[in-house]
Every structure is written in structure tokens, then in C-alpha cells.
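Annual report, structural modelling task.

Input specification for the heme C complex:
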Amino acid sequence: MARQRLTALLLAGPALCVAGAVALRQEAEPEPEVRLGGVIQPEDRLTQRMVSLGRGMFATQWTPDEGTLFNERRCIRCHIEPAVGGVRPQSTPTVMMRWDTGSISGTSNARRFRWVGGKPVAEAVTDTVVRRKSQPLFGIGQLELIPDSALLALADPTDKDGNGISGRMPKVSDGWGRFGWKSSFATLDGFVRDAYRVELGMDLYDEKLGPDRTLDQNQLDATTLFLRYLKQPPTVPRKGRGAELFAQLNCGSCHTPEHVTGKNAKFPELSGRTIRPYTDLLLHEMGDGPLHGEGKIAPQEVRTPPLWGIGYMSGPYLHDESATTLDQAIRGHGGEASASKSAYEKLPEGEQAALVKFIESL
Ligand code: HEC
Ligand code: HEC
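The model returned the following structure:
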């Protein structure tokens, strides 16, 4: 088990309190009901215990040993805004990625720190790097339970129906990829282990790792279970003009409003639920821009992000943080979404605002 310093745990305290304070402030607002964050309570006692252990793992500030390369020392540095499981606060430096032809997603983290003499020392980042937006994790366990078959049925890699929108799921190391901006993992187990490795410089036992950087399987499983049980954003989509425009402009061809989760006996609370995440979890060609990619994922391909809860998150938006506002995010679409984007640009301002208001309510 990796060592945690007591100070680390003490430091984790205030961050959690801050998240709590945000939730409280939100509760005081009249409508809609905005209790973002928290977990769906598992019925099984052991699962409950694992989920709370996982919550601790997600918040723990680790002190990796000398020589470790890392981006941050705890998960919540980039997944806390506006509640635990959210995105990077604007005060935290952005994640930078560098080109890497050996990686499925085409890039790998440009490491920001190395641990030297008990202090984190900044690494020089010399290569050309791109920004990478962290993603909110609310409801992610239910996204994992949408059956592959349901998503593959939405895919149309050769655009047989000729509507200009294709969409595909890549085969990756652990199945049909659906997580991350480049669909690099099929399972949360796969993504979480990779997050420990690339963000915190920690992994399951390997003789090259010191004891301080070694996790046991139980710790990994607990972290994953905590994320699985994170509640989806509690939203009530607006009706009216914005919703009509969303349909008319074909936004829903990629931001698929509704899915039903599959059955999994291990997670009965997450099974067979109707959810409204507004994503097809497929990769789409999004046109030119500061994109990247190698190997099996084309440079222009980006996975459709879920839009649920986006109204709670402040920008920047898009995978490379290139949009400050939701209006800019829509204008930043291209490639397969070109027709939707130009239709949006042609709308009168009032209609554009109605669509943005609708997105904010999802
Ligand atoms: C330095 C910032 C940073 C830290 C620390 C961090 N993440 Fe992330 N997280 C990101 C970014 C950036 C992405 C988007 C990654 C991508 O697609 O390339 C992401 C994506 C994810 C996703 C996939 C979300 C989706 O919708 O597919 C999961 C799961 C996740 N992180 C879990 C974790 C866990 C667990 C930890 C701690 C072990 C962690 N993250 C620590 C920045 C961070
Ligand atoms: C061809 C599929 C497709 C269509 C059609 C489409 N989108 Fe998207 N959308 C995406 C993808 C993929 C991304 C991520 C792009 C990126 O990060 O560069 C995205 C990103 C977004 C974002 C930013 C989300 C975030 O977390 O940063 C918003 C908002 C959005 N879309 C709204 C819309 C609206 C409104 C429409 C209709 C006018 C629309 N989209 C049409 C695929 C699509």
C-alpha cells in the first residue's frame, strides 16, 4: 500500500469542505434542484465500504517518492469543479499533451513535475504540446453500462445513410473504446489505472516502482467503484424553442439524448436505468483545428462528450479548451458537424440564445 502522509489527509480535508460549501450554496438557489455530486448508495455493504474507500482514494494527496514524474498529486485537483467528480478548477494548470505515435490516443501527458529532494520540481516542456480539458465524471458508471451493441447500432462508419454523419467505436486494449476524448479505453478499470499511471505516477506493483508508487488491486477497484456510483447530474431539460432547434439542427445525431443501461448483477442500482446523457460515445471527424492523433485514431476524431450537467460547469469547453463559452463551443464544430454548425451560425441571435439555454439545462 502506498504511503500517505498525515498532512496529505489533512490537506484533503479543506478541498472536500470547499466542495461541500459549493453544494450548499447551490442548494440555497431556488430552481432547478441543483445537488450535483454525491453517490448512488449501493445496497450491498461491502460495495458501500469500497465506495467510501474509493472516495478517500480520489481525494488523497499522495507523496510519491523521489524521481517520480507526475502531473498532480491527487485526482481531485482536476476533478473537483463544481463538486467532487467534476472538472479542473481554473486555478489549476491545464493538462498538456505531447505527440506520441506509440499511444492509442496519439498523445501522452507532458509531465509537469518530478519529485526531487522532497520537493516537486517543474519539468521543462520543450516539445510542441496541446491543451487537454479534463472531463466531468458524474454518472460515468451508467455510461459504462450502456451495451456495446446499442452504441454500435448508432455507428455508421461508412455513412451508409448519407447524412454526412458517421461515427465509430474503435477496438482498444480492453474492448470497444468509449472513455476519454479519443475513446482510448472501453472500461473504467482501464481508464482509472491509466489515470493513476499518467497523472499521479502510480501503478500496480512493478519492480521498477518504489513502494510509495505502488497501488494494490483493492485500491484501484475502490477508486473505480466510487466513480461508478457517482450520481448523474440532476437536471430537468427545458422545453420549448431551444429543444426544437436542438432537434432541427441535428445536434442529437451525435448528442443522442437517451440511453438505457444494460443489466449487470454486480451493480443492480445502475442497471436497467433510462438516462439522458446526450452522447453517442462515438468518435466523429470534427474537421481541422488543433487536433492530433496517430495509430488507429485519426487526427480529427473526437468522441462526442456527454452534455448532461454542462450548465453546472464553467468553461473552457472542447477537448483542447479552445472555446470559452458554449456559443463558441458550438461554433467550434466542424467536419461531420459542419451542417449543424452552419445552421446554428445562420440563426438569429435570439434563437442561438434559446439553443444555448437549452444546452445549459441538460
Ligand atoms: C492533471 C489533471 C488530472 C488529474 C490529476 C486526473 N485527471 Fe482524470 N482526466 C483528466 C483529463 C485531461 C481527462 C481527459 C483525458 C483524455 O481524454 O485524454 C480526464 C479524464 C478522466 C476519465 C474519463 C472521463 C470520460 O468521460 O471518459 C476518468 C475516468 C478519469 N479522468 C479519472 C481520474 C482518476 C481516477 C484520477 C486519479 C487517479 C484522475 N482522473 C486524475 C485530467 C486529470
Ligand atoms: C457529428 C457529431 C456532432 C454533431 C452533429 C454535434 N456535435 Fe456537439 N460535439 C461533438 C463532438 C465530437 C464534440 C467534441 C469536440 C471537441 O472537443 O473538439 C462536441 C462538443 C460539443 C459541446 C462542448 C462540450 C464540452 O464538454 O466541451 C457542445 C456544447 C456541443 N457539442 C453542442 C452541440 C450542439 C448544440 C449541436 C447542434 C447545433 C452539436 N453539438 C452538434 C459532436 C457533435
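The CA atoms of residues 145 and 261 lie 5 Å apart.
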